[in-house]
Amino acid sequence: MKNITFIGLGNMGLPMAQNLINAGYHLNVYNRTTAKSEGLKGDFKVYENIAEACKGQDVVITMLANDETLYDACLGKNGFLEVLNEGAIHISMSTISPDASRDLFAKHKAKGQHYLTAPVFGRPTAAADAKLFICTSGEEEIKEKVKPILEIMGQAIYDFGNEPSAANVVKLTGNFMIMASMETMAEAFTLAEKQGLDREQVANFFGETVFNAPIYKNYGTLIAKKQYQPVGFKASLGFKDARLASKMALDAEMPAPLLSLVYNRLLSSLANGGANADWVEGIAGGVSKDAGI
Amino acid sequence: MKNITFIGLGNMGLPMAQNLINAGYHLNVYNRTTAKSEGLKGDFKVYENIAEACKGQDVVITMLANDETLYDACLGKNGFLEVLNEGAIHISMSTISPDASRDLFAKHKAKGQHYLTAPVFGRPTAAADAKLFICTSGEEEIKEKVKPILEIMGQAIYDFGNEPSAANVVKLTGNFMIMASMETMAEAFTLAEKQGLDREQVANFFGETVFNAPIYKNYGTLIAKKQYQPVGFKASLGFKDARLASKMALDAEMPAPLLSLVYNRLLSSLANGGANADWVEGIAGGVSKDAGI
Amino acid sequence: MKNITFIGLGNMGLPMAQNLINAGYHLNVYNRTTAKSEGLKGDFKVYENIAEACKGQDVVITMLANDETLYDACLGKNGFLEVLNEGAIHISMSTISPDASRDLFAKHKAKGQHYLTAPVFGRPTAAADAKLFICTSGEEEIKEKVKPILEIMGQAIYDFGNEPSAANVVKLTGNFMIMASMETMAEAFTLAEKQGLDREQVANFFGETVFNAPIYKNYGTLIAKKQYQPVGFKASLGFKDARLASKMALDAEMPAPLLSLVYNRLLSSLANGGANADWVEGIAGGVSKDAGI
Amino acid sequence: MKNITFIGLGNMGLPMAQNLINAGYHLNVYNRTTAKSEGLKGDFKVYENIAEACKGQDVVITMLANDETLYDACLGKNGFLEVLNEGAIHISMSTISPDASRDLFAKHKAKGQHYLTAPVFGRPTAAADAKLFICTSGEEEIKEKVKPILEIMGQAIYDFGNEPSAANVVKLTGNFMIMASMETMAEAFTLAEKQGLDREQVANFFGETVFNAPIYKNYGTLIAKKQYQPVGFKASLGFKDARLASKMALDAEMPAPLLSLVYNRLLSSLANGGANADWVEGIAGGVSKDAGI
To answer: In the record, what terms sit under GO molecular function (chains A, B, C, D) (predicted)?
Structure first.
């Protein structure tokens, strides 16, 4: 298992792949935009075709933008489902829908292969430092097998049982919580500002005391400073997650008004041309605009 | 200044007063329900009349439930405004409206006295451990004078300038953030539960990783376990704060939909007989009820 | 064209079919629950198989509960797409998604057949009295051809152009407006009641004056009296429409917070076991419950 | 009783006063901006001082912008409470808070005078045509006495009992319903527009069919055309009513999320400099802005 195919060299995938190379793995890599692989160093080989990159492999890791891209990589023309070895493992680390994981789990199983859900929490810098939090769900035996691989990329692994979709539920739930926290901070700091206070001072106070968690410190600083550049995570991707979380809520018959609020906040951002802006701007910028500042 | 009158021996006031006694201060204490003072030990004297408790004093600390109670203590029949020494300092630590602080600051000033705003963050256990975070605003000279007193009760003092109302704005903004975080967690954990996951496991994961702040750990556990007893902070008091925050938002022309959401959540709790339930139940119980679990 | 197949004899379909029979048409009828056809009188024939009911027909009218049922009738095993005559017309009167109409229009066209979108506004009594408002969109020539048929069922036909999905957009938009009006009245009458007024008197006042439209008179009376029996339109069907409207809003990048509000209101009703209750109860009952009355 | 003092010659008050003059009453009139009285014709006298305009009168009608202005006219320096005859009647037709009516009722009573609550529904053109709907509450005997006066100004009088505040509750509830209807139409027409339909055609359809009430026809046309000039009713006045309705909801422990939605919508309009824009623009313009059109 020292040979791995890694598909998806975006802001997150690139440093994750690099850590695997650094740990002694040989990687076949594929990215839609091949030039992204120029950021890698060490023992790897770049492919321009997914099937070729995966042929005869035992492990493939996917870190892609959404369900559609993952389906295309797995099941499309030149997809990897048909060319992996029997018994091969697909480690699916993208933020995708629970439905997609259930479906792909079954499709791999039908081929005598395995699918492990393993989405991550953390930003690109955390990925570079191998400080990601990794959530897993799926077959116990497979989790044991790939544990050494996951440990290279993350600081801790949290397991959520056998249901392939469970870790996706956790990931989407977490992204909802992050968006809700951004709305919370944006309303709070804007209210303080409009009451005559210094919003950075207020943000610092909360980030140092009762809300001293990474989410509140990091996003809190960006929101307080209204600093929306550089773009860390696009509003369009944030909205995708709000949409997937809403679909989960629909399937579970779960009314979630705060989820609806951030969903509409980001949808408004998209409708106003902000798809490529940072999701912090999508949410906090909307609060500012409503408040006239 | 080793003599202080302390008014309000509730869940918070009692341990705060005890810490002052332990530090060598002599306290005159008053509480509407006199029996509360039985919880104190050491050098103090109980009064059944505010004016008598404050006559000729240089420092009075108030820790009361709301604007109305504070106004009554300060300006009512037997109120302390008329009996304090010239130059005396009123340290106002209750969670009250910015309007009240502006007004009382002026009224004390007209008497040659001083008013310092100093609300706190922290629960009763934090008060007992002298681990409160204290926010101040008002006259610089007065802050210097009372610093030794405040340091006995808190782990850190954060100052927000000269405007008497500023620290109240921070306190109410913070309580809004706490309520919004409860709504966030309640929706998140309920969504996870309805998707088949264990809500406690999900809460623990977030409390240990990206949301590892006291608010998320402490309230997160209560919300995950649906544990609403014993009552730590009443829904009626939580709603009071949502109402004061809404008034601030109105005055500042600040549309705040998430604030409106938690305001309505708690108002619904009150309308359904939950005024004396814990505010966690007011919010998280409402999310559960809407979700049919 | 005096032979028509009518599929779907529910609360709406039955009186619509009866009006066609009364006007001299011979009907082949199909309903999943065959017993429903016992309500019909005159010249018609009951089938237990859709394909047989449609074989060699030139006109088929569908009045079904949702996309899935319509797809099954049209494209499923024993579906009618394969058995209609070339040049045949499918008049699609159900409340379905714009996507479904676009898709079925194309599928009929590929078979040399025609698809006309023609959803209706009105309750079962309006259907019985041939007082429905019918919205159409699709091919001009086909509209002209079926005009005599539609005029038998409705008091007026409103056309929305050539795009097959347009009339569905109008229908779903209208059902959103009805749900929003129910929320409006429920909040208004409950507020008046909690302020000590007679909610029926208040409802009558508005229904006779500034809000003297059928929606406000009819639903207003039900909401004022909290009269939720008999069930006229199920909450599960109302939610289906809220869901389809939300999908339209998503596709159009349209943030719609009031739509989200009624969507969550009905979803909460479903989550609490109210799928088969009237949608008026789903919305107005939720307002009452939140208000503790 | 052929002598009446009329205070407040705004868009509504002016035509109402004219109708009284036309019916043979002699009017003493007062308006803060005296020039407004130039619009009147016939038997009236203009005063620049309220007390002089009311001295020795038996009937005074007030039609003012808000609680504050009414209080000033009634109780301020040169206010009329002190100068009216014993037994005089104050017909209070402004849109004010229930609290204000309860308070003024008591203050007049203490002077041996009477206070009748009589707010109106209708726009300036309806006032000119004497087509207002007038809601009353208060003392039965007084209602009988002033009936001839009210009938000159309105097409119908609806009575809501003895409680002085009841008619205010109805008026504010109605204004909430109008604002909610504007939000409903704005979201509906914008959704239809973004789905490719003609929003005017959609508005016309609903205004002619299921929503054929004045509110939907009149405001519907403005919203469909995005026609916000001339200003008929200022957003600042609309927000005042949303604020008063929210205060009623607070007092009655009534969670009203749709009221919160339109409240925030108008507050955002004010925060963005739109206080003097029409309330239709305040609401519908906000929906458009969020939708990026």
So the answer is: oxidoreductase activity
Tell me which residues of chain C have a pLDDT lower than 70.
Answer: 1
In terms of DSSP bridges, do strands D132-136 and D154-159 run parallel, antiparallel, or are they unpaired? parallel
Claim to verify: residue C21 and residue C144 sit in the same structural domain: yes
Predicted confidence band of residue A100 (pLDDT cuts 50, 70, 90) = very high
Q: Is residue A20 domain-shared with residue A149, that is, in the same domain?
A: yes
Contacts of B3 (CB under 8 A, 6+ apart): B25, B26, B27, B28, B57, B58, B59
Domain boundary residue, one of C120, C142, C162: C162
Chains A, D: CB contacts within 8 A come to 21
Residues 6+ apart with CB under 8 A from D90: D60, D62, D74, D80, D84, D104, D108, D113, D114, D115, D116
Reported as a single tens digit per residue, the pLDDT across A7-51 is 999 999 999 999 999 999 999 999 999 888 899 999 999 999 999
Query: Would you call D121 helix, strand, or coil by DSSP?
Result: strand
pLDDT surpassing 80 at residue D24: yes
Please state the domain count of chain B.
Answer: 2
Q: Is C171 a catalytic residue?
A: yes
Report the pLDDT value the prediction gives residue C251, as an integer from 0 to 100. Answer: 96
Question: Rounded to the nearest 5 degrees, what angle is found at the Cα of A147, between the Cα atoms of A142 and A150?
Answer: 115
Q: Are residues C148 and C98 in the same domain?
A: yes
pLDDT (0 to 100) of residue B232: 87
User: Can you list the residues of chain B whose pLDDT is less than 70?
Assistant: 1
Shared domain for D185 and D83, answered yes or no, is: no
Do A17 and A97 reside in the same domain of the chain?
yes
Instruction: CATH number of the domain at D192, please.
Output: 1.10.1040.10
Amino acid D34: pLDDT: 87
In chain B, residues 216-275 whose CB comes closer than 8 Å to chain C? 257, 264, 268, 271-273
Q: Give the domain-ending residue among D106, D131, D162.
A: D162
Residues A13, A151 share a domain: yes
Q: Where are the alpha helices (DSSP H) in D11-123?
A: 13-22, 50-54, 67-75, 98-110
Q: Chain C: residue nearest D99 by CA?
A: C195
Across the interface, of B257, B273, B291, the residue whose CB is closest to C271 is B291
From chain D, pick out residues whose CB is under 8 angstroms from the CB of A292. Answer: 268, 271-273
Q: Looking at CA atoms only, how far is residue C255 from chain A in angstroms?
A: 5
**Does residue A152 sit in the same domain as residue A9?**
yes
**Mean pLDDT computed over D63-68:** 95
Residue from D267, D283, D287 whose CB has the most chain B CBs within 10 Å, to mutate: D267
The range of the structural domain enclosing residue C113 comes to 3-162
Residue D111: give its domain's CATH number.
3.40.50.720
One domain for residues A131 and A223:
no
With cut-offs at 50, 70 and 90, classify the pLDDT of residue D2.
confident
